Amino acid sequence: MATTINGAAAPAIETPRSPRRRPGGPKARTNFELYAWLFMRISGVLLLFLVLGHLFIMNILDGGVQRIGFGFVAGRWASPFWRTWDLLMLVLAELHGTNGLRTVINDYAERAQTRFWLKMLLYVSAGLVITLGSLVIFTFDPNIS
Amino acid sequence: MTVTDDLSTTAPAASGPTATAGRTVTLKIRRFDPEVSAKPLWKSYTVPFDPSDRLLDALHYVKWNLDGSLSFRRSCAHGVCGSDAMRINGSNRLACKVLVKDLGPEISIEPIKGLPVEKDLIVDMEPFFDAFRAVKPYLIAEGHEPTRERLQSAADRERFDDTTKCIMCAACTTSCPVFWNDGEYFGPAAMVAAHRFIFDSRDAGADERLEILNEREGVWRCRTTFNCSNACPRGIQVTKAIQEVKRALIFRRF
Ligand code: SF4
Ligand code: FES
């Protein structure tokens, strides 16, 4: 049998991926992946209504895009309902997208280093978008000059 | 006797394809021999075949008549042992379960993907078996040892019937794109093995196994690509089994 292959030759063939370490190894068991999976389903369904509703109101309902201006936004955001709507949409969409991209990175980035840095970039950008977005929603001043 | 005469004179042809039909097919095989070259090479062989020949017969023809250095695993030749899973025209199949005539005039044959190749079509199955062992694929019972069989209703048996059919060929795991990139992923076959015991009414180890599959590299890595269900030579609904494990995990928590 060809079991005497030295380690150098065999991995020259593709996919010498990281083999399974442990079973029952050092990694703490958490439910993170379970919650992430559930979150994707639930946020997906919610976003369906939030985003389609948003698109409908902004682009189709009386006048469509033409009527959108500072005054329109100010009028809408006078109501906590629309602020909550927009905040929910912002947070859910950003986290949904971030988790999706995290999955894509896990699937496609082969080297641990690449994985790590791509994910850092992803998390920083997500944090930035959420912070900036919520800042606007919470501190919006309709009387700004 | 004439029987022995027949056997001795036509030994190679008796179990391989005979050239009588006059039809030939080209096998394009991805060869790898670390003692010859560090890189894999594609080699083509022209092989005669009968309509009843399976791809395994054609491989035998190559090995016995054209090139004895070709290596592949096979044992039962009847789809029972699970040794000869390979990538045939890009899909994982058992060489002993596909007919040459169904595969077109040129057939590409590669080792299953994602496990280290040792030689030609032979891969190192250890990582695959590691994942299998990790899910504790054996009966975990509690309470007193019964003095006779552990009885089970037909309905309870039916619950996990599909996943009892696995022959550990690795066709599913090595068709999974998540496994190709992430060798730590348990892979579909290990989950099929876990499913077989998790849903067995006689077994008491479901929680233990669910905990294991709840890990970072467990069921949640599954992207429901359905490659595994397509690859399984036993027709097991592999993706469905994985989804059932996910559901069990969710309903255990909520
Ligand atoms: S589930 Fe099917 S494809 Fe996977 S190892 Fe078992 S028999 Fe092979
Ligand atoms: S040789 Fe046994 S399954 Fe094909």
Please render the helix and strand layout as text.
The complex is a heterodimer of chains A (145) and B (254).
Chain A: H1 32-59, H2 70-77, H3 80-108, H4 112-139
Chain B: H1 2-9, H2 11-15, E1 23-31, E2 41-49, H3 55-66, E3 85-88, E4 91-94, E5 106-110, E6 117-119, E7 122-123, H4 126-134, H5 154-159, H6 177-181, H7 188-198, H8 206-213, H9 227-231, H10 238-253
Parallel strand pairs in B: 1-5
Antiparallel strand pairs in B: 1-2, 3-4, 3-5, 6-7
FE2/S2 (inorganic) cluster binds next to loops of chain B.
General description of the model:
The complex is a heterodimer of chains A (145) and B (254). By secondary structure, chain A is mostly helical. Helix content of chain A is 64%, strand content 0%. The N and C termini of chain A lie far apart (82 Å). In chain B, the strands form two sheets. In chain B, strands 2-1-5-3-4 form a five-stranded mixed beta sheet, with helices on one face. Chain B has a two-stranded antiparallel ribbon with strand order 6-7. The termini of chain B are far apart. The A-B interface holds A 1-3, 5-6, 9-21, 23-24, 27, 29, 31-34, 36-38, 103, 106-108, 110 and B 32-34, 38-40, 71, 113-119, 122, 124, 127, 130-131, 133-134, 177-178, 180-184, 186, 211-212, 214-218, 220-221, 223, 246, 249-250, 253. Iron/sulfur cluster is lined by residues 82, 166-172, 188-189, 192, 231-234, 236, 238 of chain B. Residues 74-77, 79-84, 94, 96 of chain B line the site of FE2/S2 (inorganic) cluster.
Structural class of the secondary elements of chain B? alpha+beta
Please compute the radius of gyration of chain B using only Cα atoms: 21 Å
Radius of gyration of chain A, in Å, reads 23 Å
Q: Trace the largest sheet of chain B across and list its strands.
A: 2-1-5-3-4
